[in-house]
Design brief:
By secondary structure, this protein is an alpha/beta fold. The chain folds into two domains: about 5-295, TIM Barrel (Alpha-Beta Barrel), CATH 3.20.20.105; about 310-390, no CATH class. The protein has helices at about 45-50, 60-65, 70-75, 80-85, 95-105, 155-165, 180-205, 225-235, 250-260, 275-285, 295-300, 335, 340-350, 355-380, 380-390, and strands at about 5-10, 15-25, 25-30, 30-35, 60, 90-95, 115, 130-135, 140, 150, 170, 210-215, 240-245, 245-250, 270, 290-295, 305, 310-315. The protein has an eight-stranded parallel barrel with strand order 4-5-6-11-12-13-15-16, surrounded by seven helices. A three-stranded antiparallel sheet has the order 1-2-3. A three-stranded antiparallel sheet has the order 8-9-10. Helix 14 crosses helix 15 (about 380-390). It binds one RNA strand of 82 nucleotides through helix 5, strand 16 and helix 11.
RNA sequence: GCGUCGGUCGGUUAGCGGCUAUACCAGGAGACUGUAAAUCUCCGGCCUUCGGGCAUCGGUGGUUCGAGUCCACCCCGGCGCA
């Protein structure tokens, strides 16, 4: 096993812990927010900017890099680190999320996090779309670039991930819709377990020495499924675990806790695709070590910035003549050099620097929120830290 | 002065006798959770008991069951000729 995980300190009254993941390409001090760089780039930022704002690792995507530029280019380039000039640990997601985003989510425009049980609507669920069809052996995708057909199986996803060459890989899974009925959640979960076994076996036979694999647990919003999945995946010989699938917003931290209790304590746990401030704090409290999420960079490109415990839309009329920083007191590059009025102007003028500056701020905000949680755990005042955040 | 083409939301514009007058941009607001996303949604004349109701296409008349659309005159603008 090429990855080393050590726990430095645990919360006395809850599941949270601080630790470190050591990879060939560097250390991740946990809990940590992993920045998403789907196509081997954190959108609108250079790797130096990503590093300077405090990020420790990036996560790219197998589906996207397979389509463009293709695994041969990734391999010839010497792997993801060299190709994108990222000096640090890297992850690749397996393409399993695209089974959802291009499948059940594609036609209905639904997210993986439902706002509450009242929002669940099984009538808008269908397991497939014209863009992604799941069967027992794998997923047939259409290319989002040119519509051509492509086939992912667990073995194929792992092969591509080996060629991309990240440090931490994810087993191929099926992410389902929060609107899927219980029966389908169970079906997708059972299939994900079979795929996990196949992913692991392929990986163990074919991996490069520096590469580790995380298995992904599923189970949607159902406690029995979540626990069952964590038990089964947790018993497999993975280097760490991803917690995937859909959630009830209000119940997410509970679901994460159910899973954490079943997973082996000595291996790292990554909460896939979760990254709103409160979700991060509750996730950490409930035993999650790493996170990734597109939200900080996506909402940045769309003009929103994290401040305090909420958000502002920089395009709002009131910021046009507001010459204060995005957030007073913030130490990020954007806040120490630019005003809301300037960034608002950049967005109105459709100048790309606006996206860059808000991305820097949002990533700094999120990365540092998680770092502060780590420090709080190490210093034994996590509860105070959490209450401080909640009172904002 | 004559001829000609045109005047529809802040701008550009569709509509060429019929039912709810288009679309894009600018403006206002909201959403975004393992990136289909520098994207998407909503608002934008007045009144409303939220079911709707009443307006509106430069102006005034007219033709017609019915006019942004056809006719007459007027106002304004572009172009051409004097």
């Amino acid at each position: 096993m090429s990855l080393k995980f050590t726990i430095e300190k645990k919360l006395s009254n809850n599941r949270g812990r601080a630790g470190r993941i050591e990879t060939k390409n560097g250390v991740i001090e946990t809990p940590a927010f992993i920045v998403v760089g789907t196509k081997a780039t954190v959108k609108s930022l250079t790797p130096e900017q990503v590093k300077d704002l405090g990020a420790q690792a990036v996560l790219a995507n197998t589906y996207h890099l397979y389509l463009q530029p293709g695994e041969e280019v990734m391999k010839k380039a010497g792997g993801l680190h060299k190709f994108m000039n990222w000096d640090g640990p890297t992850f690749t997601d397996s393409g399993g999320f695209q089974a959802f985003s291009l499948g059940a989510a594609f036609d209905n425009k639904v997210g993986k996090v439902a706002k509450g049980k009242d929002e669940i609507d099984e009538s808008i669920f269908s397991p497939h779309s014209a863009m992604a069809k799941v069967d027992e052996d794998g997923v047939t995708f259409k290319s989002i670039i040119d519509g051509s057909s492509h086939r992912f199986t667990p073995e194929r996803s792992m092969e591509i991930q080996h060629n991309i060459g990240a440090d931490i890989l994810f087993a191929f899974d099926e992410c389902t819709s929060p609107h899927a009925p219980y029966e389908y959640q169970k079906e997708a979960m059972d299939r994900t377990h079979r795929w996990a076994k196949r992913s692991l076996e392929y990986h163990q036979k074919n991996r490069s020495s520096h590469q580790s694999i995380f298995g992904i647990t599923q189970g949607g919003r159902h406690e029995d499924l979540r626990k069952e999945s964590a038990k089964i995946i947790g018993a497999m010989d993975f280097d760490g675990f991803g917690i995937g699938g859909s959630f009830d917003k209000e119940d997410m931290h509970n679901a994460v806790g159910w899973v954490a209790d079943e997973l082996p304590e000595g291996k790292p746990r990554h909460l896939l695709g979760i990254g709103e401030p409160l979700d991060l704090i509750l996730g950490i409290e409930n035993g999650m070590d790493t996170f990734d999420c597109v939200a900080p960079t996506r909402i940045a490109r769309n003009g929103a910035a994290y401040v305090g415990s909420g958000r502002i839309n920089i395009l709002n009329e009131q910021f046009g003549q507001d010459f204060s920083p995005i957030e007073t007191g913030c130490a990020c590059y954007a806040c120490t050099h630019y005003t809301r009025a300037y960034i608002s102007h950049l967005f109105r003028a459709k100048e790309i620097l606006g996206a860059t500056l808000l991305s820097i701020h949002n990533l700094y905000y999120i990365v540092n929120l998680v770092k502060r949680a780590r420090v709080a755990i190490l210093e034994g005042n996590f509860e105070k830290f959490k209450q401080g955040f909640l009172s904002l």
